[in-house]
């Protein structure tokens, strides 16, 4: 079993609660209230800004050009993700400046600053352990919704589902997992335990992020 697979397994039951959250079920069936999705989307725009800063640490901390190129590719994929958010906002007549001026929720602040802290104080393994629940979780959600056939016709969130089920997103996440595995191979037991703590904490923060969307909280 790969280190990534072990992290997922040992983060249970939180991982499944994250992937199968009521917010995700609502997106999948198209029944999520629009207000919840809008609240989430604005917060997620703020989240992705901080997340790209964390990904940039992957360039700063890289040991070679190949690792730099991979972090750079992950940032390009993230820029596409932001466009999906902005297209939704455009359709509702919400300007990017308004989204950027949205007050950050506690859930957003706690999660993003935690990831940045892991990246600033740790090495590449700690950084990617904090980044992976985000990337790999949404890839799993995208695959699950697509393969389950649960999405209703005229689902208002179909563009969101398609973005995370898309081949380029899925391939980008696979590359991040390979990079993570390669930087973990020399780690001792204590360091691996620390990665588990980071991964599980970030997974729980994903759950809190969905809940913030459902509850419309700041
Ligand atoms: C909170 C959160 N987690 C993950 C993703 C997928 N990059 C996202 N857009 N937002």
UniProtKB/TrEMBL annotation:
GO CC list: cytosol
Could you say which residues form the signal peptide?
none
Entry-linked InterPro entries? Haem_Oase-like_multi-hlx, Thiaminase-2/PQQC, Thiaminase_II, Thiamine_Salvage_TenA
> Into which EC class is this enzyme placed?
hydrolase
GO biological process assignments: thiamine biosynthetic process; thiamine diphosphate biosynthetic process
Its catalytic activity? 4-amino-5-aminomethyl-2-methylpyrimidine + H2O = 4-amino-5-hydroxymethyl-2-methylpyrimidine + NH4(+); thiamine + H2O = 5-(2-hydroxyethyl)-4-methylthiazole + 4-amino-5-hydroxymethyl-2-methylpyrimidine + H(+)
For this UniProt record, the keywords arranged alphabetically read as follows:
Hydrolase, Thiamine biosynthesis
The EC number(s) attached to this protein equal 3.5.99.2
What Pfam families does the record tag this protein with?
TENA_THI-4
Which family does the record assign?
A: Belongs to the TenA family.
What's this chain's function? Catalyzes an amino-pyrimidine hydrolysis reaction at the C5' of the pyrimidine moiety of thiamine compounds, a reaction that is part of a thiamine salvage pathway.
Q: What NCBIfam families does this protein map onto?
A: salvage_TenA
Question: Can you say what this protein is called?
Answer: Aminopyrimidine aminohydrolase
Q: Which organism is it from?
A: Nicoletella semolina
**Top-down, what is the taxonomic lineage of the species of origin?**
Bacteria, Pseudomonadati, Pseudomonadota, Gammaproteobacteria, Pasteurellales
């Amino acid at each position: 079993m790969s280190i990534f697979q072990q992290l997922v397994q040992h983060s249970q039951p939180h991982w499944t609660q994250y992937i199968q959250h009521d917010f995700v079920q609502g997106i999948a069936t198209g029944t999520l209230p629009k207000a919840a999705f809008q609240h989430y989307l604005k917060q997620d725009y703020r989240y992705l800004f901080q997340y790209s800063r964390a990904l940039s640490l992957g360039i700063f901390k890289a040991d070679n050009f190949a690792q730099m190129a991979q972090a750079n590719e992950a940032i390009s994929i993230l820029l596409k993700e932001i466009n999906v958010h902005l297209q939704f906002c455009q359709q509702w007549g919400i300007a990017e400046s308004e989204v950027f001026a949205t007050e950050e929720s506690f859930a957003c602040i706690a999660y993003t600053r935690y990831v940045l802290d892991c990246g600033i104080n740790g090495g590449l393994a700690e950084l990617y352990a904090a980044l992976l629940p985000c990337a790999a979780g949404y890839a799993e959600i995208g695959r699950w919704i697509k393969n389950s056939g649960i999405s209703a016709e005229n689902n208002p969130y179909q563009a969101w589902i398609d973005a995370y089920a898309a081949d380029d997103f899925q391939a980008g996440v696979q590359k991040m997992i390979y990079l993570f595995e390669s930087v973990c191979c020399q780690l001792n037991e204590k360091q691996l335990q620390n990665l588990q703590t980071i991964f599980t904490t970030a997974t729980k923060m994903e759950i809190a992020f969905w809940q913030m969307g459902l509850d419309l909280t700041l």
